[in-house]
Amino acid sequence: MQNSASKKFVLIAATLGSFLTPFMGSSINVALPSIGKELEMDAVLLGWVATAYLIAAAMFLVPFGRIADIQGRKKVFTLGIIIYAIASLVSGFSTSAFMLIAFRVLQGIGGAMIFGTGVAIVTSVFPVGERGRALGINVAAVYIGLSVGPFAGGFLTEHFGWRSVFYANVPLALIVLALIIWKMKGEWATARGEKFDIPGSIIYGIMLVAIMYGFSRLPAMLGGWLILVGIAALAVFVWWETRVKSPVLNINLFRKNVVFALSNLAALINYSATFAMSFLLSLYLQYIKGFSPDVAGSVLIAAPVMQAIFSPLAGRLSDRVEPRVLSSAGMALSAVGLIMFIFLGRDTHLAFVVISLIVLGFGFALFSSPNTNAVMSSVENRFYGVASATLATMRQVGMMLSMGVAMLLFSVYIGRVQITPEYYDEFLTSVRVAFIIFACLCFGGIFASLARGRVQRAKLN
Fold this sequence. Notes:
Layout: H1 4-39, H2 43-71, H3 73-91, H4 97-115, H5 118-125, H6 131-160, H7 163-167, H8 169-183, H9 198-217, H10 221-241, H11 252-255, H12 258-274, H13 276-288, H14 293-300, H15 302-317, H16 323-341, H17 350-376, H18 384-413, H19 424-451
């Protein structure tokens, strides 16, 4: 049993680790126009700066979550921080679009190690009754990263260039590494001795890459074929995992645990509907409204500030109130915020954008912490790494699908050209259509969230 001081340092280290990747992602969103200008990247290629990271992270999350359960969650978490720091440093040295995207893949691998283990470590240390509050703080760190990222990214890009956004992550990662080495005591390997499923991990990776990359290539014929390959790989993966003794992903977690399955589905829908918002709004504020990266970043912090403030409260409340009630209310508020963005235009008042962001941010705070608590409290401790990684995979796949929708619409309405004034009307049309799709997704997600059962009856035997 961990003492209170030990638990505090575990929470601090895991929370700072959870801060890193969203800070990077939201910082880069504001820097994208500057990156595109210097490296001569068109609108679709620019989207790959975010997409390459998401695909790599999604591909490795569940395998690393399983490795963490077997070899030790602290060990994998530490290695992830080191890889992430190195990738951040070398990304700043990129001289071409190819180099930057390749280093973002490396960052995604490090990010998979961090996100596949951080929540599992917190869940391992904090018992039921304290877990919701701890997970709420951890989730709040994600949103603080999202809050600080646009402002810091805008400031750094404007005054020191976009490369400084990558360099800023290195000292943060070193601080986390120091905390792990000197303050995080113990190890958590509740599946030690079990075998790692290498064939299942390979099939899983092929499945995710085919589906996610295929979706990004639509409406081209190649995209459709890749998605079909991914669906076929999914069928093979399920068949294999039900027959192997130590699967990389226990299919019974989905087949026999309604709370786990539907909570993950709700997370997938929510992230699919909301992630591309900051990407689209960053471009909208800088291209259509003519704001500098600094000012655009200051506007975009409205939503994550609300998330950072209310996530710990929502997490604590989910220890007492059924998570599905809070999460469903949050999903409904998120849908309202997305509907408001459908009305964006050249003359939209800035106050309307900020109010819409506040509504969306509050809704997401109500959804995320209780939903995370529901997922982690619905499984045995030997599945914490896989459960944490599965939830993170839903987040990464949702983010990828969200970006895929945005890039698909750019391809249809704008084409592979840089966004210049003569294409602003087409850009606005693609943004409005994107938010219509996202609002419909979020509305459907309300029912997936409501359909899960009570967490107390959800333990997998």
